[in-house]
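Input (structure):
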């Protein structure tokens, strides 16, 4: 699929709280980089690459919330769809997407997906074997990813993470771990902690907080400690040892 000139389609507005393309802001479009759009007054930063036939990739941060948006993925009976992204360097990543209500777009909220999409050159986005309907999209991503880096930074995410190179073993779970949020102070009303944990002998280990919203490193650290040792429910015969799991823990409790 060939890249289009930047048009900033209103279709992406459904992932934001307002029609972002109608706002005044700064737009930077380059042939060898992601098109970048910023509206500081709305706490919005967005990097995008648009192609023909409704295919687009965008990474957006608005009000400290990250979205990785993909257009052109066929819908299915479920609002959740997994795709396989294979880069020019041969690396592949399974990306779990959820449908954006009221649009044909799908999104992830995982920073690892955004960092993975910085790989340049020919990239294939395909259905996971066995999923219906099957599909394949072949696109060419820009050689530079300054725009994506700007978005990640504006949302408070690291640009590099050693666990990005580990195998995601979430597809080997029977159910998502029900982890507890650590008690947090009256300073916060709601906290969202994004954990990454290694798997050893069927249990979570070396858990750490990769990101909190709002920024609450003490809550992230305490929640990660609580997660260590949690026994996983794995599919029959599945071995997840050595892999990584990404788990989101949220809480709106207020402790005195």
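Output (sequence):
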């Amino acid at each position: 699929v060939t890249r289009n000139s930047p048009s900033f389609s209103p279709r992406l507005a459904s992932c934001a709280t307002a029609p972002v393309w109608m706002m005044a802001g700064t737009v930077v479009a380059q042939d060898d980089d992601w098109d970048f759009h910023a509206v500081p007054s709305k706490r919005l930063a967005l990097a995008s690459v648009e192609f023909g036939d409704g295919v687009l990739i965008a990474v957006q941060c608005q009000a400290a919330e990250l979205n990785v948006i993909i257009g052109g993925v066929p819908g299915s009976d479920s609002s959740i769809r997994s795709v396989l992204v294979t880069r020019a360097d041969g690396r592949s990543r399974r990306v779990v997407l959820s449908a954006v209500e009221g649009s044909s777009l799908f999104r992830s909220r995982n920073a690892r997906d955004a960092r993975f999409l910085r790989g340049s050159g020919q990239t294939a986005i395909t259905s996971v074997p066995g999923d219906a309907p099957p599909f394949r999209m072949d696109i060419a991503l820009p050689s530079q990813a300054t725009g994506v880096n700007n978005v990640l930074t504006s949302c408070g995410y690291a640009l590099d993470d050693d666990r990005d190179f580990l195998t995601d073993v979430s597809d080997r779970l029977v159910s998502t771990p029900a982890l507890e949020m650590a008690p947090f102070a009256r300073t916060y009303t709601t906290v969202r902690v994004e954990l990454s944990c290694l798997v050893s002998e069927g249990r979570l280990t070396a858990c750490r907080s990769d990101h909190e919203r709002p920024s609450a490193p003490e809550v992230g650290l305490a929640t990660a400690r609580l997660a260590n040792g949690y026994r996983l429910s794995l599919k029959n015969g599945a071995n997840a040892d050595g892999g990584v799991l990404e788990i989101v823990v949220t809480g709106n409790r207020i402790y005195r």
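Notes: The longest helix spans residues 217-227. The first strand starts at residue 26 and ends at 28.
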